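note to self — DONT lose this again. spent like an hour looking for the file last time. sequence + predicted structure for the chain T wanted, 334 res
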Amino acid sequence: MERMIECVPNFSEGCNKHTIEAIAQSIRSVDGVSLLNIYPGEGAGRTVMTFVGEPEATAEAAWRMTATAARLIDMRLHHGTHPRIGATDVLPLVPVSGISLEETAQIATSLARRIATELEIPCYLYEAAAVLPQHRNLAHCRKGDYEGLQARIDSNDPAEHPDLGWRPWDQQMARTGCTVVGARDFLIAVNFNLDSSDTEAATSIARAVRESGWHGQPGSLPGTKAIGWYIPEYGFAQVSMNICDRSRTPLHRAYTEVCRQAEARGLRVTGTELIGMVPMQVLSDALLALGGSTQGYDMKQQAEAAARLLRLDQIRPYIPEERVIELAVNKHKA
């Protein structure tokens, strides 16, 4: 079986096309790596890219893109609605085939050490690569966002410090921020669009569904994280969710539950925005669960049918060959 890992970096830039393309080009510059998707979000101030390849080549591409982002993005000037602490904010590696999560975590640790040493960007290690138990949670690594990062760097509590490359706060760190590097299984990043601009309503729904809940009361969707926000670019509020354990909460369950919670508040989910890419199984499962059929349909047709049921094209066209991992890899090889 071919050894392959996926990298899904998030950059703190959603508007500057030249910066986004320069980062993308640094990924393309590595042989054996396929850049499958670029997903910019102007309102979130964030771009998500997805690329796959042989583990060592993918790690090299990840290092090059981090160096480019550090050169072109100044965090002192950055604004956006999405939590972030660095130019290359979060850098997860995901095992795809022929490699274990534990081996992927070792590669992530080596990559973070190189970023901290050669680029002088301090790194937190999260998920399967975490050194400290509390750092497994991405939210803890990004606690306080960029605006609170200096206080954490200068804190007397070692648990607040990056795992690699810690030093006193300086202007170079102020420019690049820190990067969160780790290894994890597939994560589904999804936003549910509401027919309202009410951020408080979106936040209320997020608190009701996310695993951590609110004020000690757990939410209805295990294995999820969620926040509510308003995106000026779109003109409506969203429930923004990470499905960290799709075995406990598949996409279709999250969709129907957020719809139920919205209706209870007199609102409606008008569409779904998938960020980055997903495995085909996610959409096939959703298609069946929402009343569709997979019989006699190829992967592209199944993805298109699922997209209609989930209303994935409200914000922009949903093109399966660019958003489903298996279809994108096949297209790239063709």
